[in-house]
Structures are given as C-alpha cells and as structure tokens.
Design brief:
Blueprint: E1 20-25, H1 30-41, E2 46-53, H2 57-67, E3 71-74, H3 77-86, E4 95-96, H4 100-108, E5 115-118, H5 126-134, E6 138-141, H6 144-160, E7 165-167, H7 170-178, E8 188-195, H8 205-208, H9 213-216, H10 226-234, H11 236-249, E9 256-260, E10 266-272, E11 277-281, H12 287-295, H13 327-338, H14 342-358, H15 366-377, H16 379-382, H17 389-405
Parallel strand pairs: 1-2, 1-5, 2-3, 3-4, 5-6, 6-7, 8-9
Antiparallel strand pairs: 8-10, 10-11
Helix pairs in contact: 2-3, 4-5, 5-6, 6-11, 6-14, 10-14, 11-13, 14-15, 14-17
Length: 407
C-alpha cells in the first residue's frame, strides 16, 4: 500500500464560507442518530440535505420533517410506499428517490451534497461509497465492512478521484487526528487501537460457552446496534478495525495492535520510531468523531456532550487481550498476514455467524468456530488478491454460502 494517500487532502476552502451539506445514508441507526445530534447542535455550520434508511419509514419521516430534508430514500420498497403515503403533500418539496441500491447511489451522487456519511450496516454501502468518491464528495465512512471487503478498490478510487475519505469510527478517527490527517509514514512504528472488551471482558472461557444474545447486548460503555455490539463481545469488531486501519493508513500487519482499555476514553495510540506516543482522548460517545469528520479541519464547541473533566479522579487502565478467550482477534490478525481476499471471507463468515447467534441458532463460541472453518474451506481463494470488485463480491457471496453450511 502506497503511503501517498491523496484521499487525506484538506477540504476546499470554499466550504469554510458556507454550511457543509450532508447526505446521511443510514439515518435511523445509532450512527445516524448521533449524526443528527451533531447537525442539530451546529445549524450554522451543517445542513442535512439527504437521508436514507432501510425500512424504518416512520422514523425517517420524523427526521425529514424535523430537519426539512429535501431528499430521502428507503431501501425497502414497501417501506418507501408507506413513507410516500405519509407525506403526500406536494408542497413539502421532498424528492423521494428509488428503492434499493439505486436510491442510495442517487443520494451519494447528489449535486447538493458536499459530504456523504455512509453508516449503512454491512456491505450494502459499498457501491454508494464508491459513487460518492467518483462524484468528488468528501466521504465520511462509518461502515467498516466496506474497507474490509474492498479496501483496495475504495482507496484506489479515492486516490484516482482526489477525493477525501475521513474515518468516522472512533478508533480510526483518533488515529486520523494523531497523524494530523496524513497517512502513516516511515516514522510510525505502531498504531494501537483500544477495545473496551465488550460485555464479556472479564468472563471465563467456561462462562462464555453459555453466553446468550441478551448477555452479549449489554455493552458496558457504548449504545450501538445488535450486530456491532455482538462483534464487541467477540472482539471481531476490533479485528475488523485492525484490518481497516491497515487499509486506511497504509500499514503492515505487524504495525497494527489492540489493547484492552475498559474506560473507553483513549481511542487510539500512535507510537513513533523515536519512542514517543500520541493518544487521542474523549468521552465514549460517537458524537465526538462524527463532529470531527463533518467539520474537519475546523474545530467547534461540542454542543452535544460534556468534555472530559480532569479535575475529577480519572484512572486509565490498559491490559493485553487474551486471544485464547477471544479468538476472533487472532483470526483477524491471521487474515491480515494472509492478505488477498482473506479479510473479505472473515467479514462475510462473521456476519452469517452473528446473525445465527442472535437468532439463538448458534452458541457464542460457535461464532469464531464458523469463521475459522470458513477461512479453512476457502484457503486457496483467501490467498489470492482479487483483480476486480466483481471478484470480491462473488467471493463474499460464496463465503456466506460456505459459512451457512457450518451452522
């Protein structure tokens, strides 16, 4: 991976003279909700011009009405029809775009939008993210699966179109800030992402064998959707983030590390070859990285959350990850060393296994077992570097099919 990532360029100065216009794909999820809080707190700097959701049309209608959004899309066709009947008044001046991926692509390329924030769960946001890049938008990326599945193609497109890509994930946004928006260079020795450890941070291996979906969804620090919360419990989330960091910042596998940090206040650390280390700290709320991504390079008062109070007793704890209890992290590191299509297989198998666990069709330890078996079954394909995006998507579908057979 070249270290010359023009995708990390500074936004055009003309944006500083007017409000940033934001298209939000995934408006009804947890990232979407926090993005709306940030936009509401900065009406003089941010304007919401488009929103999309999968099927929660009632919530989307409330967002459109509150923020007076002129463009909307619903992935599900029945939900789109329900939304259309909810707002039949032509004076509302709402353009309702097509259902499915077509609607997401339309919003991603919207001429009125400066920044497209992609917070679509899973890999459905891949083509909209590429469309935003090709249209010259600033891409604020919250869907980590996109870079895990097709990071090579996304980063190549960003360089080719001289488009800016700003990570929204708290850990990658923290690294972005520590590197002052530049890619990692020869002076960077290691990037360390912190992990809260999720609901099972202190559980024994014996107890993990009986963990239920309800147990896994009790995250101690963050309020997120069910899939990502289970990923936090297995530490697959941290594994995906390590893969994403490698792609985003042009790192070698051995330069990417993770450490347990129960307080979720330090989000990432960047160590340099001279032994110095920079860390980014803020409270465990997604409004901080979202605001940074939407306003970059400007800084503004938070407006949504209280900052850290250093006058209070503040203890920061770090400890290594026990990869025998959390094998999903070890498997992620294995895929990074393998390279090629291995990360895409890891991601696809994990999505299938987590869905089965949430439906009580798979025990908690079955998640890493399913991923490991799928990687082994597709070992030959995993080692090959995909030549085209279609190749990656076909392998993604095949990995899901294979993972299903192990359930």
């Amino acid at each position: 991976m070249s270290s010359d990532h023009s995708s990390f360029s500074i936004p055009h100065s003309s944006l500083a003279t007017r409000r940033r216009r934001v298209a939000l794909l995934g408006a009804t999820g947890s990232i979407g909700e926090n993005t709306l809080r940030v936009i509401a707190a900065h009406p003089d700097q941010l304007e919401l011009v488009a929103v999309a959701a999968h099927s929660n049309w009632e919530k989307l209608a409330g967002i459109v009405e509150k923020f007076r959004v002129p463009h909307a899309a619903l992935f599900d066709e029945k939900a789109r029809s329900a939304f259309q009947s909810k707002i039949p008044n032509p004076k509302s001046k709402i353009t309702l775009h097509a259902p499915g991926v077509e609607g997401l692509l339309s919003l991603a390329k919207l001429p009125e939008a400066d920044t497209v924030l992609v917070a679509v769960v899973g890999t459905q946001g891949l083509h909209p993210a590429l469309a935003a890049i090709e249209a010259g938008k600033t891409l604020a990326l919250a869907s980590k699966e996109i870079l895990v599945l097709a990071g090579k193609f996304v980063m190549d497109a960003a360089r080719h179109h001289n488009a800016q890509l700003i990570p929204v994930d708290s850990e990658h946004n923290a690294v972005f800030q520590c590197l002052a928006g530049r890619p990692a260079d020869a002076a960077v020795r290691r990037v360390t992402l912190t992990a809260s450890g999720g609901a099972f941070r202190d559980w024994s291996a014996e107890r993990l064998a009986t963990a239920t979906p309800a147990d896994a969804l009790r995250h101690p620090n963050w309020a997120m959707g069910p899939k990502i919360t289970v990923d936090c419990a297995t530490l697959a989330n941290k594994g995906l983030e390590l893969i994403e960091a490698q792609v985003l910042f042009g790192l070698r596998p051995e330069q990417c590390a993770a450490v347990l940090h129960p307080q979720s206040i330090v989000h990432a650390l960047v160590e340099f070859t001279d032994g110095a280390m920079l860390a980014q700290l803020c409270p465990p709320s997604m409004t901080f990285p979202i605001q940074h991504a939407l306003l970059h390079p400007a800084r503004s008062a938070a407006g949504t959350e209280s900052a850290l109070d250093l006058d209070r007793l503040l203890a920061l704890e770090f400890r290594p990850v026990d990869e025998t209890r959390f094998p999903m992290l070890a498997l992620a590191k294995q895929t990074m060393r393998t390279g090629g299509s291995a990360p895409a297989i890891y991601n696809a198998a994990n999505e299938i296994a987590v869905a089965a666990f949430l439906e009580n069709k798979l025990p908690f330890p079955g998640i890493p077992r399913t991923v490991e078996k799928t990687l082994a079954a597709l070992a030959a394909e995993a080692a090959r570097d995909p030549a085209t995006l279609d190749t990656v998507l076909a392998l993604d579908a095949e990995a899901r099919r294979v993972a299903e057979t192990f359930l």
